[in-house]
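Data card: per-record layout.
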Amino acid sequence: MTQQSAANPTVSPKKVLVVYYSLTGNTKKIAEDVARLLNADIEQLIDKKGRVGTGGYLVAAKDAAVGALTEIEPAKHDPSAYDLVVMGNPIWAWTMTPAIRTYITNNKAAFKEVAFFTSAGGSKPNKTVERMEVLCGQHAKTSVAFLDQEYKEKFRSTYEEKLNGFVTKLR
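The structure for this 171-residue chain is written out next.
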C-alpha cells in the first residue's frame, strides 16, 4: 500500500483490510467501493452453511437472532498485519450475520482498530454496531449504514455521500 500524498488523496496512509460477508451482493458492492477508495486489501467471508432459498433464509435469520457461530472458510489475510480492519455486514434479524460474528470471535485479539458498515432493507443499525463493538472489545473508529434503496440510481447521490463521508473518516 502506498502512502497518502497531495497528488493522490484517495489513498489511505494506514494499512487497511476490508472484511465482509454478503449473500445478495449488496454488502459486497460497498466493500469493493470502500477497499478501492482506501487502497485496501479485501477479504470475503465464505459461510460453509447453505443459506440460500426460503429454508436457508429462515435458518440464517434464526442463527443470527440467537447469536450462533458458523463455520467459515479460512481467512487469506491476517488481521494483525493491519492498522485498521473495516467490517461489512448485512443486518439479519436486527443483528450481525453468523459469518461476521465468527470472524470477530476468532480474530478480535488481532484487531488494532475497527470500523463497521452495514447494509439493510430498513433495519436500524445502531444495535448491530453496538453488538459488534461489544464482541470486538473496542469502539469502532466510525460506522455507517446503507439502505438497499440507496444503491438504486434514484438515490445514488445519497450512497456516494455516505460512502465518501465514511472513507474520509477512516483516513
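Known properties of this structure: Confidence is low (pLDDT under 50) at residues 1-8. The chain has one domain: 16-170.

See the next section for split statistics.
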